Structures are given as C-alpha cells and as structure tokens.
Amino acid sequence: MVRRVVGQRGGRPVQSDSIGVLTGVTETHLTVRTADGEIDIALAAVTAAKRIPDRRARSATERLELVAAAGWPPVEQGRLGDWLLRASGGWTGRGNSALAVGDPGRPVAEAVDAVIDWYGERGQRPMIAVPLPLGRRVQPELDRRGWDTITPTLVQTAMLSDLPASADPSVVLMREPTEEWFAGVGGRKGGLPPAARAILTGVPSARFAAGYSPDGALVATARGTVVDGWLGITVVGVEPDQRRRGWARRLTLALADWAAGAGAERAYLQVEEANTAARRLYEGLGFGTAHMYVVRLP
C-alpha cells in the first residue's frame, strides 16, 4: 500500500492510497500494479508505504462458496489466481463457470479476457459465477461488456442442530447411486451425460437419498455431501404427481441426520430466487439466506 499526495484542497494536501504489487523502483518513481492496471508514483509524492500480507483471511461468503464448489466438482478445473475455472461439458452452470472468488492475479479486464480464452479453447460459452456482494470489482467490468445476468440464486444455510429430527422409513440413503436413482434425476433434468455422473459421484463423503411410495416406486431423489463440516444438499427432485406431499422435507431431514452423524455441523443449499415454493419449504425448516450469486455470460 502506497499513500501519496495527489493535490491540494483549501491549502491542505489531499492524499490517496494505491494497493497492489510493487513491480518497479527507480530513483524517482515507484511502479505499482493495481486491479486497474499499472501506475507510476513519484517518490516525492509518497507520504507512507507498508507491506500488506500476501493473503488475507477469507470471508465467510468466500469460504462457503469454496465449500459449495468442492461439493460440486467439475470434470475439468483450472485456476486463474484464486478464481476457479470449471468445465463439465455444459452440464449445469455451477459445473461450467468461473467462480470469481478472491484475486485473479491480474487486472479484472485481463482476467475476464483470460476466462473467455479458457472456455473458448474448450468450445464453451464463457460464464462467470459472481457471489454478491463480493463482485463489486468484476461486476462493473461485465456490465461494461454488456454481459447478461441469469439465475439469481440464494445460498441458504442452517445449523443441523436446529433442524427437526427424522426417522422416515420411506427414505433410503445409499452410499452409491443406483441406475434407478440416476434415471429419476435424469428424468427431471433432461437426461444425465457422463459429466453429470462424474459430478454427482465426485465427492467421497456422500449419500444419495431415495424416496419410495407405498407401492415401492421411486418418487423423489436428493444428494448430500459433507465437505469441511458442511452438508451440501443438491438435486432435490420429486415426481410431478407426488409433489406437495412433504417429500423434499423428508429427504432434506434424512440427509441432515446422516451428516450430523458424520461430523457436520451446518448445512447449505442453493435455491433460485424465483422458486418461491422451495424457498418457503426451506425457510420453514429453519434455513436462512447467507448470500446470493448470479451467473454472468456474454
């Protein structure tokens, strides 16, 4: 961090701070690479300078986003500084978007260009998942480029100890998904390509929940993963003729019981902001919104 005099106001000096990486020093100037590019600062204008530790502590939102990313592992992953680059053949936005968490290690405009190149090399449309309000640096750049905003999604959390206990014999938890379970999920998602199976089975600590009607038909599915003490609840789905019968609640609570026994303390799930029915369900169980994210694409 460099503090320097940038002008005068009312006969008094006006100072400004520049934060970045020191890339050059001469007898008269410093060169600092900031998020907006390199700037030259006259030594005569510098009033203070200090070294900032290389890595600050991550915020709660950043930590949760990284846990959620680990719970939905892509087929291929790269890095752009701290940002995660994820590709999975186009199956789901989470598996095929750059996660803009942390410092990309270069000015934002260059980082977006690098994202475009990375996805272009794979024949995919570039997408960037932007947690809010963390996206205050990248959002203006994407706005400038005219990128669209899709699927505003709420990340909701709860303490497992606050959820009701469950002992429902109609819900079975499996260590490995069966072909029937895959077919149930795929039937509601337009089929499951190989990438989908890789994502769904890519976390070692996982359970696959199946809900059965009295006649033995599979009518509801869900997936739970435990990463760093968090239960992640995903792909909750119920057959259309079985909805509004409490299946999503039963699956969620069964996974919560398992996760608590596996050492988890908290749970998260992701629900689209427009899905009011699901929001009411999870809020009724005790989940509250921790933050939101959006997906941006050209």
TrEMBL record:
One GO MF term attached to the UniProt entry: acyltransferase activity, transferring groups other than amino-acyl groups
PROSITE patterns on file: GNAT
Residues annotated as domain N-acetyltransferase: 172-298
Identification of the protein by name: N-acetyltransferase
Species annotation: Virgisporangium aurantiacum
